[in-house]
Design a protein that fits this description.
Elements (H helix, E strand, L loop, with lengths): L12 H11 L8 H9 L69 E6 L9 H5 L1 E3 L4 E3 L13 H18 L3 E4 L11 H10 L4 E8 L9 E5 L3 E2 L2 E2 L1 H22 L12 E4 L3 H4 L5 E8 L3 H8 L1 H20 L2
Parallel strand pairs: 1-4, 1-5, 5-10, 6-9
Antiparallel strand pairs: 2-3, 6-10, 7-8
This protein binds zinc ion.
The site of zinc ion has 8 residues, from loops.
Length: 327
Amino acid sequence: MTGPTSRPPRRSALLRATTVVAAVVPLCTAGWFGWRALDHSDPAAATAAPPGTVQSGGPASASPEAPPAGSTPTGSPSTAGTPSGTPTEPAVAPGDTPAPTAAADLTGRTIVLDPGHNPGNFSHPTEINRQVDVGNGHKECDTTGTETDAGYTEADYTLDVTRRARALLTARGAKVVFTQDGDRPWGPCVDERARAGAEARADVALSVHADGAPASGSGFHVIMPAKVVAGKADNSAIVEPSHRLGLVLRDSFHAATGEPYADYIAKEGLDTRSDLGGLNLSAVPKVFIECGNMRNSADARRMTDPQWRQHAAQGIADALTAFLTAH
Ligand code: ZN
């Protein structure tokens, strides 16, 4: 979810982790304590907050990295507009995802998708380390995110999955707005990410992340907003609908990917937090999903697989569809 402010040169993961620990840098790989305190749980920790908001992307699936044609899961409406991109991807087996339903018409609905971090953050430590006000405290503008042992970054992962989800959702008629689409050098900051929902007049928003927890932990979890009324934050209006979204997303993602609930954090795949600017400052229903633990070998293997990422996108798209068509 969060991480170093500068990217270490390509070395062995072990060497890198060792260096990091020695340097007491708030890396996702720095171990349980550092991770809990700096990145994920401690509300007071002035570090690492995943995303929040901004604009961009544009509705259509113009992204060069969108899901490959042919990877459209069954049951979903026509994906004729599915962008092509990464070649050579196997078609996704339909099967285990909940049927997207014939009533999945999202025409007129707007969804903000927030790909966590930014591949360029590694090169902009000064910009992303700036502190921003998240209502009940201050957090870094943005962080670099984590990566697998093999060097597949969270920022690349979140962009890929989010683009795939966008293709599915736009095919159902939704307008999809990205907070960043790999089209800016760094960021945006978490407060800007949080504002994106309101600025787009969105019906719902979702931040996509992958975790950087200790290697022994695996599984995914969804993070829902705790009520925060402090300073410029007042998310009271979104707490209830966001929790509904969180439940739907947990079930849909689990069904689509087979990924187990996290065994190292949260409870039955659900967590509630008050330390994330992206949730504190959102004016529209919003949750985060930590799709798995990139530091865990089994999770990393799945997240590195494009076919699995298509399933992940399917679970996300189906959840947003279900949420938007349920009320
Ligand atoms: Zn993240």
